[in-house]
Amino acid sequence: MSREYTSDEMMTVAAARQLRDGSACFVGIGLPSTAANLARATHAPNLVLIYESGCLGAKPDRLPLSIGDGILADTADAVVSVPEVFNYWLQPGRIDVGFLGAAQLDRYGNINTTVIGGDYDDPKVRLPGAGGAPEIAASCGEVVVVVRQSLRTFIDRVDFVTSVGYGRGPGDRERLGLRGGGPRVVITDLGVLKPDPDTCELTLTRLHPGVTVEQARAATGWDLAVAGDLAAVDPPTEHELAVLRALEATKKVAAQ
Amino acid sequence: MSREYTSDEMMTVAAARQLRDGSACFVGIGLPSTAANLARATHAPNLVLIYESGCLGAKPDRLPLSIGDGILADTADAVVSVPEVFNYWLQPGRIDVGFLGAAQLDRYGNINTTVIGGDYDDPKVRLPGAGGAPEIAASCGEVVVVVRQSLRTFIDRVDFVTSVGYGRGPGDRERLGLRGGGPRVVITDLGVLKPDPDTCELTLTRLHPGVTVEQARAATGWDLAVAGDLAAVDPPTEHELAVLRALEATKKVAAQ
Amino acid sequence: MAKLVSLAEGVADLVRDGDVVALEGFTHLIPFAAGHEIIRQGRQDLTLVRMTPDVIYDQLIGMGCARRLVFSWGGNPGVGSLHRFRDAVQNSWPVPLELEEHSHAGMANRYVAGASGLPFAVLRGYTGTDLPRHTTNIKTITCPFTGEVLTAVPALRPDVTVVHAQRADRAGNVQMWGITGVQKEAVLAAHRSLVTVEEIVDELEPVPGQVVLPSWAVTAVAAVPAGSHPSYAQGYSVRDNDFYVRWDAISRDRDTFREWMEQHVLKAEVQA
Amino acid sequence: MAKLVSLAEGVADLVRDGDVVALEGFTHLIPFAAGHEIIRQGRQDLTLVRMTPDVIYDQLIGMGCARRLVFSWGGNPGVGSLHRFRDAVQNSWPVPLELEEHSHAGMANRYVAGASGLPFAVLRGYTGTDLPRHTTNIKTITCPFTGEVLTAVPALRPDVTVVHAQRADRAGNVQMWGITGVQKEAVLAAHRSLVTVEEIVDELEPVPGQVVLPSWAVTAVAAVPAGSHPSYAQGYSVRDNDFYVRWDAISRDRDTFREWMEQHVLKAEVQA
User: Does B92 touch chain D (CB under 8 A)?
Assistant: First the structure.
């Protein structure tokens, strides 16, 4: 098994490491689902995976092809209706971690998955929209965002606020009455960002091996703050890589 | 099989005859449940029995011992939660007939099952209370009331309005925004009463065999109006009596 | 994750004097054994919440555990009145009992709001009845889109909810089926929950009509075989209807009642 | 009682030009065959409602059946964007498409309100986002008990809801299991409903996790084996993931799309 790995693999492994064993995680499809299943297959065997399709405690032995893959229902502790998963499980704050992606992310961790450019009625790019994200971002105990870092995605202010991070800064979540803690950490293909405790601004706290601060700054659409004690992320272990690649392989098989 | 029968048997048979085949009936326990099951076992084999315990389309082959008897769940088309039976099934007006009893009934068909005498905080008699009745009386297409007729039960004005009939008279249901039609008929051990189309006042329209208008008046706490075309109720047929007594027998067996 | 405990431990840890306590179970799966343990441990000053207070609440009320009752129908199902409940309301024996009275639809929606993390629920209910005159917990609310006036009731958030279910696994996942009433909502609405079960099994075989409460949504689980007697647990026991009938005579007289409770509850072996 | 009909009859009777139409199914049991029949019958001016408009709505939109879309997430799940949806929004091709956009929680609660006969639903949602700026169907509401401000959304009441289920019996009782999403609410919220099923059986054997819609709550049932392809029907078929991937290329170009629809939908045998 080679220790060579891609930046996406590093990002997925770093995201998986954010999930504590035994916590309940509301999982979006794509990268978040891959990372959550990697966590469950490595350091967090008791991670409770919750999918918006109504599957509580799903234990897939392969990567689901969609958030409604039959394997999620087959392996769940309970399958509930979609209204129930949002009303009885997400809304009251029962879910510890919300795991989200983004098309655009701004310096206060606000997420846009709706429209880019132009205006809402005549956008340059029409994106899929909100899905479960606004209420996941509002009600989960904390939010982990996984997104590739570039000038297209990391912008000073999102074109459309689909899901609220820290709004325009300190105190905004409280003013809005959002009961969850908001984005605790953002994992990218370059490193790790965390909100500054005073300003709520996303600050670079760690870099993936071989990545420089300059690269991170060049991929950020605002004047990126960097933590004094900037540390390096541990590269993927052989075990993490092996499990991740085995999971990705199951996806290809299942898709045939 | 003797054609002798009790006034309760006459009342139950007359009540059963009010239920049209194929209609959906929200069934309270006691007399309404007996009458509804008699109807299903005689002229209305496709009567859909709905119990507030969440059993939709129950088909018990014996009388249930309670509205939550296991035989209701075992034979139902669907068993749903108690919130669902009230919110998704009763509230939108999906149920054709609500079948209710009463401790007190007044000239406008209002029902009291809460307190009798004294005042609410210091009543002479404390009754079980509302249960599902207020919303059954409000939302079912129509209501059939089954109650023994006496000066204790048939009073000019109920001590407490637990479930609304016609309120204080014409137009009150509309004013209150109640979407169901209200009491269409009241079946007693003496005869049948229906609301006057103009005044909404319960009017004697039929007498059971052998019962006189004087008896009915003497058992009514208001000046009872009597229909011009006062007809006699057909006595129970041998078949009706045989099925009713067989049903009652199953209850005794099940209770052992 | 739910802790596996004994009934005595569960009640001692989770049910406290002065608590708002909901014991739910809609004629099926009524947690009688847990109610008896609450009586044995001498809890007092409780606000008892239940859609259908029946024999178990008659016993809790008659033993003086309750200060207040929030309910929608109080009777001995299929038999008649609850004499201890009536005695408390009409004669304040053994202690006065405050009532807060609702309809089933209102109570069910109050649990739904509690389970949903909302402060209130909206329904078409109570309109034209005398119920709203006797509590501040029934109000009107106007639809912001149509202007229609509907009814609002506040969320129920019990300190502790107690229910009985058929089974749990060793991880504390709970499985119930048959008539499951409002139990899921009552458990999710509560700050703490205790579930007694007929048995604890290695694997929860899926059952048609099942409701599963994941372990992480439950505080504690106690194995109490026949814990719903004289109610029933579908697949395990049938309703002891004869007891419900006999309760009428037992409960009519204060002394007969006390004596029966002495013999059958207070002196009963505490379940392991 | 539900009528047993052919798919063509069901769509002809129940889906009309200008209707508000909801096709639901949350990645599982998506009623593709019914959507194709709506296209074959040339319905126009529809307001399409769906939490997750995916390939079937991309096809309806690309064929010009829709005037308006009410939704919360529009994409090709696990693959990417919906090109016909984007082309309609960005370039009004083949006809302009109005959008009314919500979150999943908002849409689910709108169906719940519709199924419950209420004019609106209350939730904790949308707060702080830009979504309320673009529709009048998201408002605030104040709790009459606590004064807390929450969000209200109006009930969804489709003229017709179409869903796919595993089975129905000859009386028209419908049974589905696995991920059942918001289908029960969508059917109960609608004025009319059409359910396509994999098969019609004599007896509906109870299945764990089943949702049963009684015949009297459904307007019509049509047997359409594989009626959810390329989606899946748990217990009957698996997801044709390859098709979802291929759809990206098919739908990117207007001509390729039209040609594919000609071949595979317009000229397809109408299901019996």
Answer: yes
Q: Do the chains contact at D116 and B92, CB–CB below 8 Å?
A: yes
E runs forming strands in chain B: 24-27, 48-51, 55-58, 78-79, 97-100, 104-105, 111-112, 115-119, 122-126, 142-146, 183-187, 191-195, 202-207, 225-232
CA distance A231 to chain D (A): 34
Distance CA D231, CA D240 (A): 6
Tokens 């004669």 correspond to C91
Residue B153 in tokens: 């039960």
Burial C16-36 (b: 16+ CB within 10 A, else e): eeebbbbbbbbbbbbbbbbbb
Here the ipTM equals 0.97
Q: Could you give the CA distance from residue A145 to residue A168 in angstroms, rounded to a whole number?
A: 18
Task: For chain D, say whether B57 makes contact (Cβ under 8 Å).
Answer: yes
3-state SS assignment for residue D36: helix
DSSP state of C3: E
Percent of chain C with pLDDT over 90: 96
* pTM, to two decimals: 0.97
Distance CA C155, CA B84 (A): 17
Q: Which of A4, A9, A52, A201 is the catalytic position?
A: A52
Q: Which chain D residues are within 8 Å of C123, Cβ to Cβ?
A: 118
Q: Which of A69, A83, A177 sits opposite D182 (nearest CB)?
A: A83
What's the pLDDT at D126?
Answer: 98
Find the chain C residues whose C-beta atoms sit closer than 8 A to any C-beta of A: 1, 115-118, 173, 184-185, 188, 211-217
Indicate yes or no: CB of C124 within 8 angstroms of CB of B172.
Answer: no
Q: Which residues of D touch A55 (CB under 8 A)?
A: 179
Q: Which two tokens stand for residue D119?
A: 């004019």
pLDDT digits (tens, 9 = 90+) for C25-60: 999 999 999 999 999 999 999 999 999 999 999 999
Give which of C98, C96, C99, C93 is closest to C257, Cα–Cα.
Answer: C93
User: Is B91 in the D-facing interface, judged by CB distances under 8 Å?
Assistant: yes
pLDDT at D261 over 60: yes
Q: Please say whether the beta carbons of A98 and A135 come within 8 A.
A: no
